[in-house]
Amino acid sequence: MEYQEFEVRISRAERDQYLVEVLRSPAGETSTLTKLPIERAELHAQLAELRLPFTEKIQLVEMGQVLYDFLFMPPIARCWERSLGSVQAAEQGLNLRLRIEDTELAQLPWELIYDRDLERFLIASLQTPLLRYIPLPEPVLPVSIRPPLRLLLAISSPPDYPPLNVDREKQWITEALAHLFHRNAVSVDILESTTRQTLQTWLRRDYHILHYIGHGYVDEGIGSGNLVLTDESTQQASFQDAETLSYLLQYSSIRLVFLNACQTAVTSGTEAFLGVAQSTVRAGLPAVVAMQFDIPDASAANFARAFYGSLAEGFPVQAAVTEGRKAVLATTGPDFKDWATPALFMRSPTGVLFKQRTGTGIKVSIGGDVTSSSVVTAGRDITIRDLPEDQRSGGKYDIHVEQAHGLVIGDSARVEQHFPGDPPLRAESLRRQLRIHQSNLTRLEMQALEYGQADVPLWLLEEIKFTQAEIRRLEEELATPATIETVPELSQVRRILVEYFDLEELRTLCFDLGVDFDNLRGEGKSSKARELIAYLQRRDQLNRLTRYIRQLRPNISI
To answer: Is position 308 within any domain?
Structure first.
């Protein structure tokens, strides 16, 4: 299902009033002032009851109605209803995207919003998912991957904390995902007794998702969200603060973090980004799913099974979360809060984190003969490395690509996937890996200095040597010329945008490309088109625009 956005910003105005603004919706923008519909003491009492192990549906409904009455004052409600009507007619969904700038309100369980007229919780419908949006200036683009989704399951249960049944934790998640293993949709590696060092080492590998099972808390005294890891030396609890965790994740291949730990979605009262989930998104991660209440293993397993299954099928992350909620609801019913416990924090504009790539290679036809080959470039001409010497005269041949999903680069010892028309994706991936290794090398060298020149342990020297070798390899690959898709003259691209797209279509095109239309300078269509081209050109992403134009306007020559 495709989604349009109903983006709402909530900020404190004055005294007990709050400003609620609809920043974007199919029905336009609006704003209003509002107050909490009940006293703060009563609200906090209701919230405390929800944190108890057992709840009743009436408690969830009461909290949900309070949140609905606060958010959907008449101007907002009318805009919401018109927007719903618009997307329903187009058979689309409507993301309720909350930008909560007040730290007290950020602690509330907005996932419980309850529409008394429809007599249902909003997030129980696939059409109206809710996400907590954290805006950042850089756009988030989906990463192209070839299945399976690679998941790192990190478990931490230090002996001086309430024990987790590690075997049971491994069992429920592997059983929950067994059907995905058989389809090669998901693979899982398990890291037990997670320490800072082992987590850092494993994050250097090419994982897509980090799934943490353990303890978490927010230290109100120093205002820091933490995960509880295991100290490598003492095997006792070691606190991994959210800021340091965000550094580890910042340049990794991780696109999604799943935090199955008590309080990992709780916001400290002194700083909105001090919760673990918020900090990791602020560091640049596209999405985090975090538990805001304790959740039983059975419900966590049901959620994970449906969530990861939907994600592997290409669902946007918000739709995958809704599928997970529905799976829990079908098992526990609405009396338990388990289905509303996962909170989604996101900065991806569409929720699409991964672009699934299919196909296992190519067949190249030259002069009627089909040759399966190692190839080094992508585009209309492909260099064939392993043809007989007498057939290599020009080095390049006009070819017919029988299977155009992907091209295999390299030899049998080292095989990578490259895709026609997307060389910037390969370069972006290599640069990201290079940044990771350079950052790791700096940390490793600092660790070595702490030991002194004569006492550096062998394992640390080996890590430094390995990291230096990886940096050299990546620098060599980046220096190797890559085929760049032919891009037309900038003036031609701008002329096509101005002549063949109206202003609203240009806005939609920007949204699909992950570019904030309103931040492009200028007012008219011509100015916006010029700024869009300049923005993408600065980021070596102009080919994305030209491909999209060809897709939307196939009859135009570009």
So the answer is: yes
